[in-house]
């Protein structure tokens, strides 16, 4: 059994005033400390979930530490892997970012991470980590500052260049304030939370993960060689889409070691040192000045609280205080410091007004309720004005949320929330969007999106293994092990994922061939996004290698549907017509023509009705 982390509850982790991150000294002011502390409290609040994440991280962390060392990347970046994919091999976000380091397909391929019908290296701990180091080294070459390189992992290189001052390039000391980028503050919280529990040789004594060279073999052959069940091996190697492992390079199969079992010895092929960008970052690396009073023990998974914090958000909102047990009555609770009440079943504005003594007009105003709106059972409603700004700086939009619900949760007026984010009331709210709550998002800063993990219906292979070992250790009765049955040999052409046939570059009644001329700084990813075409097809049609890149003016042949020509470089949005709005006025909002709107919506006239939904193809 794991030892207890009860000391964590007795001595909460405290955010220091200074901390070293990847060789950069970060001075944290009072406002930033408060934000980081709230994120830190969320990460550690549930001992069950904290322990599970720490155990999962320790299964893989030795692979990550090894790659970071080989590639010359500061060891602190191992905590970024926890922040990104939480060490779930097949984690998927709402924006289709996949795997340990949360790569989208196109960006992964540009970094040399293979994604095709044979393998998806985003789900391979070693290959995906190598891809992440390539990106970080490219960014650090520009910034000469690993903290800014880390920020660019979310924002992109050009996004970070637009938002950071020149004085931070090459800086070895930075001030972290309330206005500093939230991604960095979130990282600091992860480093503080896990630095004493994850990595540096910490392993579960009962289970570990090892790697075995599988180049050119089938997964069933590897299973027989290392004597690990085929189904279990398959669960830990979801990067392999077909049974036979490619033989074009080294492919490490990940497998579990239970109890005192030792890894299978193999002769390693001599590696050629092809990296000329490796730096000496790890030498003379400054140590963190955070005092550690011995190593804390890992947490127990007894009595799980069931608490599931929202990834990316700071603090837990709304904050309800007062006589919560009597929240359905007036003058009993405050929500985010504002007097509030909870609506009863079958409640409406009239009954709520009578019970609280607040007029219907004011209830609508205080809670941003529209002309036809009403109250909902068991929801909280403010009895005085909400604030003009939130108590924290940002919120990451989760599934099912609306602008109204977010404004209610944080006690900020809806009009102010829209203004701070430069949004129109009818603008589509996408999952993962980072909303500003305290200040107005600068015009030069593009809208940002964070990876919001898609809810899983199955237990991750990593958690399943950890729970199986923990359960086995709690059994006091000796159970006779069943005799292992010989696994029957199966056809070695067995396929996990049916290959998708590639589309040939041939014009037809429905498709046409066009020539795209490459513009400055344009990448395969950019072209793929403009035309909605898979990068694999672009490469095959033009006999190109993604690692060779593109040249300005280079001609690239593309096959696109004829009916999609008008939508190239555009994003579809839905506009809901307001009272008095005209076709011309709507065309000005989206910078399109009236004729285009009519064509997209199969309209013959300019007539509109309030509430009518119009399809708009907005230029990117």
Kindly describe this structure.
With 620 residues, this protein is α+β, with helices and mostly antiparallel strands. The protein has helices spanning 6-10, 30-45, 47-71, 78-85, 105-110, 125-143, 146-155, 157-163, 182-194, 219-226, 230-235, 349-356, 360-366, 403-410, 414-420, 461-474, 524-531, 535-542, 583-590, 594-600, and strands at residues 18-21, 24-28, 173-176, 207-213, 252-258, 320-322, 333-335, 338-342, 380-382, 394-396, 434-436, 511-517, 555-561, 570-576, 613-619. Helix 4 (78-85) crosses helix 9 and helix 7 packs across helix 8.
For the structure shown, list the relevant keywords.
three-stranded mixed β-sheet, disordered N terminus
Summarize the structure.
The chain is α+β, with helices and mostly antiparallel strands and 620 residues long.
User: Stretches where pLDDT falls below 50 for ≥5 residues?
Assistant: 1-10, 272-314, 476-486
Total count of strands: 15
Strand order of the largest sheet: 6-7-8-9
Helical fraction equals 25-40%
Tally of helical runs: 20
Mean pLDDT: 82
Task: Please tell me what the overall shape is.
Answer: globular
Main beta sheet: 4 strands, antiparallel
Query: What structural category characterises the helix and strand content?
Result: alpha+beta
Radius of gyration: 27 Å
Structural topology:
Elements lengths: L5 H5 L7 E4 L2 E5 L1 H16 L1 H25 L6 H8 L19 H6 L14 H19 L2 H10 L1 H7 L9 E4 L5 H13 L12 E7 L5 H8 L3 H6 L16 E7 L61 E3 L10 E3 L2 E5 L6 H8 L3 H7 L13 E3 L11 E3 L6 H8 L3 H7 L13 E3 L24 H14 L36 E7 L6 H8 L3 H8 L12 E7 L8 E7 L6 H8 L3 H7 L12 E7 L1
Parallel strand pairs: 2-3
Antiparallel strand pairs: 1-2, 4-5, 6-7, 7-8, 8-9, 10-11, 12-13, 14-15
Helix pairs in contact: 2-9, 3-6, 4-9, 6-7, 7-8
């Amino acid at each position: 059994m794991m030892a207890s982390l009860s000391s964590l509850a007795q001595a909460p982790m405290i955010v220091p005033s200074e901390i070293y991150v990847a060789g950069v000294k970060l001075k944290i002011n009072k406002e930033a400390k408060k934000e980081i502390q709230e994120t830190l409290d969320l990460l550690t609040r549930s001992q069950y979930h904290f322990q599970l994440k720490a155990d999962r991280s320790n299964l893989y962390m030795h692979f990550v530490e090894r790659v970071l060392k080989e590639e010359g990347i500061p060891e602190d970046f191992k905590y970024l892997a926890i922040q990104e994919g939480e060490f779930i091999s097949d984690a998927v976000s709402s924006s289709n970012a996949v795997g340990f380091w949360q790569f989208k397909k196109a960006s992964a391929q540009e970094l040399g991470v293979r994604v095709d019908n044979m393998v998806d290296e985003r789900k391979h701990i070693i290959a995906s980590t190598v891809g992440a180091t390539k990106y970080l080294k490219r960014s650090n070459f520009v910034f000469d500052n690993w903290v800014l390189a880390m920020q660019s992992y979310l924002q992109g290189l050009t996004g970070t260049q637009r938002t950071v001052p020149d004085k931070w390039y090459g800086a070895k000391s930075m001030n972290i304030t309330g206005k500093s980028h939230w991604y960095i503050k979130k990282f600091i919280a992860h480093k503080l939370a896990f630095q004493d529990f994850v990595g540096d040789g910490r392993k579960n004594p009962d289970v570990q993960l090892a790697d075995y060279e599988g180049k050119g073999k089938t997964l069933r052959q590897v299973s027989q060689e290392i004597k690990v069940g085929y189904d279990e091996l398959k669960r830990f190697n979801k990067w392999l889409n077909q049974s036979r492992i490619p033989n074009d390079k080294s492919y490490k199969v990940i497998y579990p070691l239970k109890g005192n079992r030792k890894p299978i010895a193999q002769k390693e092929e001599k590696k050629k040192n092809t990296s000329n960008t490796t730096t000496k970052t790890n030498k003379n690396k400054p140590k963190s000045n955070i005092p550690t009073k011995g190593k804390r023990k890992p947490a127990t998974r007894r009595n799980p609280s069931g608490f599931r914090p929202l990834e990316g958000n700071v603090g837990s909102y709304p904050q309800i205080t007062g006589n919560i047990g009597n929240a359905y009555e007036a003058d009993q609770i405050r929500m985010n410091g504002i007097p509030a009440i909870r609506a009863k079943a079958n409640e409406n504005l009239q009954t709520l007004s009578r019970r609280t003594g607040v007029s219907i007009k004011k209830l609508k105003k205080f809670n941003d309720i529209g002309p036809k709106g009403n109250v909902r059972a068991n929801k909280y409603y403010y009895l005085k004005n909400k604030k003009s700004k939130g108590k924290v700086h940002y919120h990451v939009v989760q599934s099912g949320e609306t602008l109204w619900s977010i404004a209610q949760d944080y006690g900020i007026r809806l009009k102010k929330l829209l203004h701070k984010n430069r949004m129109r009331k009818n603008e589509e709210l996408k999952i993962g969007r980072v909303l500003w709550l305290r200040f107005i998002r600068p015009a030069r800063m593009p809208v940002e999106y964070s990876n919001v993990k898609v809810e899983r219906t199955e237990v991750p292979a990593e958690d399943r293994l950890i729970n199986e070992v923990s359960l086995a250790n709690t059994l006091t009765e000796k159970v006779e092990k069943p005799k292992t049955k010989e696994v029957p040999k199966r056809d070695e052409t067995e396929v996990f994922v049916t290959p998708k046939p590639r589309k040939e570059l041939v014009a037809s009644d429905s498709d046409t061939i066009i020539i795209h001329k490459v513009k400055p700084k344009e990448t395969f990813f950019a072209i793929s996004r403009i035309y909605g075409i898979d990068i694999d097809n672009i490469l095959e049609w033009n006999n190109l290698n993604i690692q060779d890149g593109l040249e300005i003016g280079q001609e690239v042949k593309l096959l696109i549907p004829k009916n999609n020509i008008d939508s190239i470089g555009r994003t579809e949005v839905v506009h809901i017509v307001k009272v008095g709005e005209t076709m011309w006025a709507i065309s000005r909002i989206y910078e399109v023509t009236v004729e285009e709107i009519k064509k997209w919506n199969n309209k013959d006239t300019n007539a509109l009705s309030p509430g009518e939904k119009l399809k708009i193809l907005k230029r990117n």
